[in-house]
Protein: Acetylornithine deacetylase
Organism: Chloroflexus islandicus
Amino acid sequence: MHDLNPTEQRVLAAIDDAGLLEALAALVSIPSLDGTAAENEAQEYVAVLLAEQGMAVDRWEIDLPQLYAHPACSWEVPRERALGVVGTLGADRGGRSLIFNGHVDVVPAGDRRHWRSDPWQATILDGRVYGRGALDMKGGLCCAIFAARAIAAAGVRLRGRLLIQSVIGEEDGGLGTLAAILRGHTADAAIVAEPTELKVAPAQAGAHNFRLTVYGAAAHGCVREEGVSAIEKFAPLHQAILDLEHRRNERLRAADPSGLFTRYRTPNAICIGIVRAGEWASSEAEQLVAEGRYGIGIGEDPAAARAELEQAIAAAAAQDPWLRDHPPTLEWWGGRFDPASTPLDAPIVQTLAGCDQTVRGAPPTFEGMTYGADMRLLVNVAGIPTVLYGPGDVRDAHRPNESVALADLQVATRVFALTALRFCGYDEE
């Protein structure tokens, strides 16, 4: 690494890679699924970890009814209790403030027979850490924590505040980050430590959840022609959705001046992940329910984008006599991830990019991320310039054998530490 002054060299030398792996292993061992007691158990662990790193810790019980009433709040999983945790290092002494944001909640592990190792135990194989949440995104959160720890351990006094938001509920809508914002934990800029393959991502596409219900008519399977299969009636609607996905992505890709999404053929995908139909094997299915996510592009009005799906479903139904008389219903529910972006010339984007180049010795790569993330709350609700940056590839998330490279964890921690120093400022010795 070049262009490091003595203070920066001392901070990077203070990074505890072994301690980071121990903390990550402890977090992976907590099955912090959304809405479970373990989600809060993970928050308790992080609160202790932040305090051990010399940070002032705000740990509070989130007022869920009050939060649910906020227009930007979305969720899919019911909760009886939720914890917010934010650690702060430094003070307002003329420098800029910076947030590192990371979530502790994880998706289910699925069929364990498909895993190389126990999903709830961090296992190092072939230079990678395996385990549910190791990548998405307990690894990135630990990188942020140990970057702050190195600054404190090196005895460096920041001129601005460095905050670490450890949040719940990101996977099902982002209520943890919204709670932190509403509690007043804001800053001049933020980095969300999502897996970006160590690419600087100043743009995040949107995704809204939908539920499509198709109605048929039940009949005994031996006289199925006397009924109407909701499964068969779903077929033209599904094709209409696929056609809409193609049209929308062609249009949005052509209208994207940034070029941040050029790697993706379908950056604003429409994915149907759940289909449920029928109640009995020898009965014609009288109802089908399909649930999915609807991709929304940068700069799109979410309401106008959603109207496109509603119109496409209505137009397809109008072509079928049964569906015309028994129209399907479309609901918007659960996670609501609006798109968000930060200008490329924003100070946090340029500072992070410069630190990435310093650490890795090569020009940074800028790219938009096609998944929903809490960036949109920090940008759209709090007005905080935000960028996504973190270790690992999202393609390894939400599937068996989720993993993150040890080398990525090491790079991200050093980039985070250097970014905090250069963005917040510090007292020269």
Observations:
- The longest strand covers residues 206-215.
- The two ends are 21 Å apart (CA to CA).
